[in-house]
Amino acid sequence: MQKLFRFLKPYKLELILGPLFKLLEAIFELLVPIVMAKIIDNGISQNNTSYIGKMCALIVVLGICGMCFAITCQYLAARCAFHYGADLRKALYQHINSLSCTELDKLGTSTLINRITNDVTASQSGVNMFIRLASRTPFLIIGAIVMVFIIDAKLSLIFLAIAPIIGFLLYFVMSKTIPLYTKNQKKLDNIARHTGENLEGVRVIRAFSRQKQEVKAFADECADLEKSMLTVGKISAVLNPLTFIVINLGIVAVLWFGGVHVDTGRLTQGNLTAFANYMTQILLAMIAFANLVVILTKAQASSIRVAQVLETVSTMQDGSELSDSANSEIAIKFNHVNFSYAGAGDSILENINFEIKKGQTLGIIGGTGSGKSTLAGLIYRSYDVTQGEVQVFGKNIKNYQLKALNKKIGLVPQKAVLFTGSIAENLKWADENISESDMQKALDIAQASEFVNQLQYGLNTHLVQGGRNLSGGQKQRLTIARALAGKPEILILDDSMSALDYATDAKLRTALKEQCKNMTKVIISQRATSLMHADLILVLDDGACVGKGTHDALLKSCGVYQEIYHSQMQ
Ligand code: ATP
Ligand code: MG
Question: Which of 32, 174, 320, 347 sees the fewest Cβ atoms within 10 Å?
Fold first, then answer.
């Protein structure tokens, strides 16, 4: 939680002046009942109209001054809260981007979206209301109590009797609702995850006619949240009426005993009215305080969730070396590499050893789930190895600055991911200043120029979210072109030709061989024909490397490779 306080530091002025103006407003508010008492005792009882007129004017002046102070405070509170929220959101987004895949896997996408939106907004409201009410309400309550003590100390013992009751009520509501608010936020995370997954996979849901089940599952989750929210609402709802009852009973007692004092002449009518007025002020301040408690409770639960993300430290330390320092002829080397995903237990890759020279092609083949994408991920340091080391151009990849390593490697992920914007904008991801002719060259090699040039707006064609206005094969070719546009020294194609027909697949491989001679290529594929010309082929089976060599050598020596090859050749 303390981590969030630093975001308030730049707004010290607002944090000091805001409550100060609210205090001034409270002082003016506290003066009004005294003036009222004077009107009754000195004006009305003695029929002094000019005195009454003067005092009424004074009340108006007090009101106007109080209003000006309140508006100033509101302005300062809004200014501070909105800037705080914006800064926090920015910092949170930046921090999330600095986390490694291990932490992102652990946290999950939907909760991160909720924390960056809902939770930051709740925390921001907390700051706003804190400035507006946190100083005013206690001051008004204490001030009013002091005033009633001055008016009649004995009568004010009634306040001392009701104060602990109200204190207990506030404690009860807070202790019950704080844990529930945290639970509700988690339920909201689940709903967000469900919504995201369903909207993303809407076509699959329709293809399997699962709309009914999905709508029901969503409705169940919403009903569960509704129930839980109603529970919080019910507990919070008892606070206001109970506070009202207790304070109003106090007012009844004041009028009862005060009336006796007026009869005996110990108390004037004006002072009794002022006494009752202060009681009402305390009532209203108590209710404002109860609402403040509810808002601050929510804000606290949300702030803890935001702070949890900010406190998550990336397990991946950035290296310091730039790419220029690496000049080995060995482009990629795996040295006794073992890897398992955090929290998943079992080893995914076991004792992987190989090296591949600059400009050569490495092929990786193996059944589904055998660890091909995981192995590729270790080359661009998506995750850190559990044991052993990965070298790129002779250096342990942990020593590189991540940015420098990313610049060396062009990745074409297994799932083609494109972003909203024009095709040209997507191609500029690796190099913002790329020329149009270089873009065309990248599209040529990726076998994408033909379809891009046929589009009405060519490179300026707008892609919708996720590139959904393109076919699977078109998307794959654009992701290949995007990687090539950065002119990487190592190109990783993770099953990136699966949606291409055999002829296009062959043309792409030939273009890569002829036009990217110095580029080291890592090609992952399920098709033996896509890899048969590679300089080295790794055959993975359940995380172990069961074959290593050229196509011809593997056909002679590796049973798993023979099986894959012959099954595809039939
Ligand atoms: P495919 O041919 O289907 O793409 P693959 O050979 O690329 O398969 P990987 O994606 O590397 O397989 O997965 C290897 C194993 O690691 C699988 O058993 C998978 O369940 C597991 N795995 C993959 N990603 C994660 C993750 N983020 N967290 C935990 N386990 C994972
Ligand atoms: Mg894979």
Answer: 320
Helix and strand element counts for the chain (H, E): 21, 12
Can you point out the beta strands (E) in 373-474? 387-392, 395-396, 409-412, 421-422, 462-463
Match 């999905």 to its residue by tokens.
214
Tell me the pLDDT tens digit for each residue of 168-217.
887 888 788 878 887 888 888 888 888 888 887 887 888 888 888 888 99
Tell me which residue has its CA closest to atom 26 in ligand 1. Answer: 341
pLDDT band, very low/low/confident/very high, at 161 (cuts 50, 70, 90):
confident
- Give the 3-state secondary structure of 160-189: HHHHHHHHHHHHHHHHHHHHHHHHHHHHHH
d(CA 500, CA 14): 61
**What residues line ligand 1, using a CB cutoff of 6 Å?**
105, 341, 344, 348, 366, 368-374, 414, 495
Residue with tokens 């919708």: 464
* Structure confidence at residue 323 (pLDDT): 65
352 CA to middle of ligand 2, Å? 17
Write down the H helix ranges in 265-332: 269-311
For residues 462 and 151, what is the distance between their CA atoms, to the nearest angstrom? 75
Sign of the Cα pseudo-torsion (61, 67, 70, 75, in order): negative
Ligand 1 nearest atom to the CA of residue 375, by list position? 11
Residue 401 main-chain phi, psi, to 5 deg:
-65, 135
**Which residue is associated with the tokens 């305080």?**
289
pLDDT, mean of residues 9-15:
92
Q: What percent of the chain has pLDDT over 90?
A: 32
Look at the block and give the residue holding tokens 């109590």: 145
State the residue for tokens 């305390």.
282
Percent above pLDDT 70 for the chain: 99
Write 563-568 long-range contacts (CB < 8 A, 24+): 564/365, 564/528, 564/539, 565/528, 568/527, 568/528, 568/529
Of 101, 373, 527, which is best to mutate to test ligand 1, by the most ligand atoms within 8 angstroms of its C-beta?
A: 373
Give the atom of ligand 1 at the shortest distance from the alpha carbon of 495: 4
Q: Cα 248–254–260 angle (5° rounding)?
A: 145
Collect residues with CB below 5 Å from ion ligand 2: 373, 414
Tens of pLDDT along 206-245? 888 888 888 899 999 999 999 999 998 888 888 878 888 8
Mean pLDDT is lowest, of 222-226, 403-407, 501-505, for 501-505
For residue 479, the number of C-alpha atoms closer than 13 Å in the C-beta half-sphere is 27
Q: Which atom of ligand 1 is nearest to the CA of 370?
A: 6
Q: Please tell me the distance between residue 366's alpha carbon and the centre of ligand 1 in angstroms.
A: 12
**Looking at the CA of 342, which ligand is closest?**
1
